[in-house]
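Reviewer 2 asked us to include a model.

Predict the structure of this chain.
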Amino acid sequence: MALHAALAAALVRAGAGEDLAVGSPIAGRGQDGTVDDVVGFFVNMLVLRTDASGDPTARQLLARTRETALNAFAHQDVPFEEVVGALNPARPPGRQPFTEVVLALQNNARAEVDLPGAEAGVEPLRTGAARFELLVDVTDDHGPSGAPDGMTLVFEYRTSCLEPEFVRWLADAVVEALTAAAADPDVPLSRLPLPAPPRHADGTLDAVRVPAPAGAAPADSALHREIAAVWSDVLGVERIGPHDDFFRLGGNSLRAVRVAARLTGAGRTVTAAQLFTSPTVAALAAELERASTGTAPPAPAPIPRRPRIPRRPGRDGRTDTGQSQKEVPWT
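Predicted model (structure tokens):
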């Protein structure tokens, strides 16, 4: 709960808002012990909604987080899929709703294997593919006697979504939030002595990667306005920006078909599949511009041939797939 509150404090400082949803896996074995001796995977995903409004103190934020967590634990048997089905949020391709940020706590002692004549240990392997936009994986460390010996945090993130400088800042900010809250639990969130988040030259936060599509039409072109007007009518959203995601705004496959039909009826050649590959106004406009001028999309950069594919990640948790991680140990 303290880790959740510290992560929420850092996200608030980063400008993520005051109403935060953080996913949290739970073992799913209940509290009655009926499956204690059953081998299997029962993990369920809880969504913990954190209220950080009103500039609460660290103590108040922890109390809110505790209440939210206990309420979620009391209903931990409700499948995550049923929660999603009941709320029916926007479902962008390749993303799970409500779990852009996930905090996982591995609070069991690490398994040990005693082999005669051999030294054995457990070494975690990283897949090189981030499961969520941001996963904070926390492991309790134990000394040789089994006594608690600090924690290790691993920040795993999608490099296509977040900037590495921002994730490094977030890792430091979480640790600083824990340290500051322990020293003075009555300090308001706005006065926590956290490091300044990275910013661009114009003062905007350097956090989310929004690549500009190659060959894009001007952001206020007639084509942009035409696409945005159709999206606005189909989705029921009044204002649509050039980089707003169709599926994050509530789009789905049926609405994609309606958008394609509307634009095709207006003289554009558009398919529903194009909204999945170009889900923003800017990206779709760039694709239609290329089609109208006969310009082929830029060829992907060649992938250098390697003498062999590494059989497993290195000891630092990195592979050659672009996966970026950071470990922050403290005691």
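Residues 2-205 form a domain with the Chloramphenicol Acetyltransferase fold (CATH 3.30.559.30). Helices lie at 2-13, 58-74, 80-87, 164-183, 222-235, 253-265, 272-277, 281-293. We have added this to the supplementary material.
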